[in-house]
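Researcher: Quick one. three chains, 1215 residues in total.
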Amino acid sequence: MDKIPLTVDVNGVKYDLKVKPHWTLLRALREELQLTGTKEGCGKGECGFCTVIIDGIATMSCLTPALRVQGKKITTIEGLPRQGKPHPVQEAFLEEGAVNCGMCIPGMVMAAVAFLNKKANPTEGEVRTALSGNICRCGGYARPVKAVLIASQKIMEAKTNE
Amino acid sequence: MSKLAVVGKDYQKTDAFDKITGAAKFCSDMTVPRMLHAKVLRSPYPHAIVTKIDASDALKLPGVKAVLTHDDVPKILYNRDYHTVWDTLERDNYILEKKARYVGDKIAAVAAEDLDTAEEALDLIDVRYQELPAVYDPVEAMQADAPKIHDEIMIGDRRVPVRNNVIRNTSLEVGDLEKGFSEADMVFEDRYATQRAQQVASEPHSVLVIPEANGRLTVWAGTQSIFGLRMKLAAALGMPESMIKCVRTHMGGSFGSYLDMNIYEPITALLAMKTRRPVKYVNTREEEFISTARHPAVSYIKTGVKRDGTLTARYLKTMMDGAAYAAHSAAASYCVGGWFLSMYKAPNMKYEGCVVYTNTFPCGAFRGFGHPQQNFPVESQMDMIAEELGIDPVEIRLKNHVGLGDDFYYQGVARHGPVCSCGVPELLEKGAKLIGWQEKRLRKREISPTKRYGIGVARGFHTSGAGDKRYGGDTYEYASSIVKFNEDGAANVITAGADTGCGEWQVWCQIAAETLEIPFEKVIMSSMSGITTDEAPHDLGTHATRGTYAIGMGVKAAAEDAKKRILEVAAGILEGKAEDLEAKDGKVYPKKSPDRGLTYAEIAREAINLGYGPIIGTSAIRPSSAPPAFGVKFVELEVDLDTGKVNLLNVVAGHDCGRVVYPAGAECQLGGGVQQGLGFALTEDLVIDEETGATVNGNLRDYKILRTTDMPPVQLFFVEALEPTGPFGAKGIGEAPINDMASAVANAIYHATGMRFKELPITPERILRALGRI
Amino acid sequence: MIPNTLEEAISILKDRGKDAKIMAGCTDVFVDKPPGTKTLVDISNLNLNYITRTEDGIRIGATTTYASLQDSELLRVHGLKHILLQAVDSVGHPMVRNMGTIGGNICSAVSCADIPPALMALDASLVIVGPTEEKTVSVNDFLVDNKKTILNYDEILKEIRVPDLPADSGGSFLKLARTSVDLAQVNVAACVTLGEEGLCKEARIALGAVAPTPIRAKGAEAFLRGKKLDDSVIEQAASIASQETKPISDIRASAAYRKEMTKTLVRRALNQAVLSLIG
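Model:
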């Protein structure tokens, strides 16, 4: 099978890649771009570890054909910090002691970021639903959920301070 | 104890920043130049002899660099369990087999330039099988006419024939059981069963083996013990241990999945040796599901009681499914005995355990290591006894639990010692208060014609490691660390201990900082990812809930040793005697003139300048105890009698780990154990198809673990019953959080519906069947 | 293959359709990798992602994602969730809903799909485009067998047309599953319309995961017509519906459980349909 050229915009940088037609975006990110922050947990869209943001939408990269993202803007966990400063969601996870083994974290953070970009001041129930596609086996979810609620406060405060 | 400066406080976890940014590299993230990719060819049959295997077509495929079969492997039997001593461990595994004993068994392995080629190559390996009858149930497997799964295995230096597929029989006895039952006013007998559940650690197994020019192997792999892995790999390959260097990596969880060398490390190592190139192997999630699991168990429990609730006799007989290869089976079986004896006091107790081979994928170690399998019958029956005698379930547990001063049977067999710290009364009383036990126990069960409310309790524990006063025994147990100072006063902790995500690195740094009396920020966990068996001292690793207690003990001892050296060097510099000096808060000063002094940094730097040499402390110790860390669970729920669905309303979970070293980490351990325990109670069951021997739901779609939207509100609390032998009074936490959760759920369902479920998981179908609705 | 117009897509399918699979959200087709086919036709660029209001109903493009449907004002009527939205909310989890499409759910033709029962209860119609014609069929005729629709290899589902319910109508969608994110063990959609004297004028009950395809419980519907929808009538209708099922046993549920739960869910869905009428 021959590889096909693909130009992707990942975290604001344009890359020229060659991928096989059956490759997923996940594989392209991890193997061709060495962006291993996005993890593979199941390859079948169940665990959410592979979540990235494409054109503002939280998307599972293990189910996205690599060839499909031509011309789209992809953000991975590596692309979250702005001017070297962690995203409020990342800050909140750190402050709340919500990071255990770290495998579910990048996907969970990206899902949370995409969610908070669209929803201000969510309830706990809404946060739980927003994270229901991200499984975690370590901590029982309480701290990540709290971290997302705190992050939404941080984001609101930042907006009012602007 | 004086006020603690660092232990008991929350700081940012040592690896948190690297993980929140995605920078931390797990083994599955690693690549090295010229790396090949490996895949394993697995048997489609549960029991079959390989009659022919032809890899010539696969080898012709461009990019394929090696294909291995049974003919290529060292004819050395191994057992992947690395915590059981050599002399007692059943060795029954080759690196690749010529007889398949479960669907998925390792028949051949390929290394190729890329993953696609490796996968294509698998299809080109021609394998012919002669199918044999298969057996999936341990009782059936013991029958005279059952298929023979193993003929002969090795234990130590002896060849041992396998009879009736039995791996091990265990018997533990205290007192006189017959006498005990004869003294009872009432006798309770029941049968209980627990299912095959899977750890579902977030990161599937991955291995990277790099062959070095001088014949050594560098092995990156997730493991709970780099020395344990090295030991097993050396044995399986027939190499001296020092020729293998195992490297510690970040790990995406474990829960026991990595308490052994699995089949992947030796296969990958052989491929690396054959090709003389680095080889990487990564499990798919489906392959992960057939790599390890909890041993299914069926238990018969019989208890004699007096009318006042005193226990006169306790008996448990557990039949365990040992799967196709023994692995930890014998240890898990005798541990069930140890746990059983240590749950409640009775002068006469007996445990009989039997674990048997079946044609199912190998079971391994799963959080609790046999504890949930006996906790479910014991805690369910305790409630039945309480009801019959008219005693409150919390009261009967307060009356009978093994507690302070009582005999505690560690991990079974011949070990026991007195309990020196016990938070059980406070756990039960505080938990009861937090959930509102008294009042809710009397609540009307019938909320509506079709909904029932119930509240239940259960308790459990786990040992902190496998220590003992005597040397020897079935399980390795020792701790060793190094603490060394830098010229700027910061200290490095070097340990082989694994952090599976649970925060042990954090705990060890906090213990070191507290002991050295320097700020937490001045302690460095050396090479979280990267420390190897070449430079770390030999420590057993993170398992059996020994990280905080035993490894922590080793870190504390090494820090104390470093502090002693600081004083010696300071004495030299200040031209005095060490006993006239005091080390406090990062400074050393003469007791008689506290204003004269040197900081640790000054001492460490001067030590180099003046030729004293670096300040290093070491330790090599054996914990003399494995103190129980206790837990309790309360749960409220509603049962929908129309659908059988259980709606979890509220969980109160308490734990006594002695001194809580790292509070956020402790809460995550407890909260995570609740999630896993609720799954064990209600939804998790890895089913084997008895027509084909394959798993039916070895994937994340159909093996149901709980998500954010499945979890009830959970309240966590800690009781600090300080352990005199533990570092700053600490005990462990890792496993207890799961051990009693399912029992509490079963007890709550009984309270709600009057139906006693004796098999896990308690699914809606089982509930409706019990109601006669289907 | 990524066509840019419907005509292009159809011409590709005409050529290779026997061996090709259509992909839009990829949450089904791309699960097994490689996807077991030589040709994948990506139809996400055909401008079939829309939700529009017409006089008598709502028109939804086949590649409209579940998330777009959740964000649409058109599926919330007087603060009540449209039955279709109730079904959409139950599908998968947020990322599945961001990516997956309503057309994909229908065309997967799996027995447990959540969208078809809702559309069947709503008496929706589907617009199919082929090489020579565009035709409209009832959703009730679209699913032929497990994983088989009436689509020819060179046809594409283009649009879903959901008619407004007449006045005095109420409906509900319910899904029973093992956990909060799961395929259905049973799903049920019910729509009722009341006529004179408050008697049932029309009833449509669709059942999923209890037969090779989602089905209409025609026996139960006939039973309800002309009757007052009280507890006893609803109970009986639920029983009849249960008898119309042909469920299998699988890892998610046994046939017996599915039969029994059909009864429970139909009863609950009808009760909620009646409640939504009053409210």
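DSSP finds nine helices and 15 strands in chain C.
Researcher: Thanks, that's what I needed.
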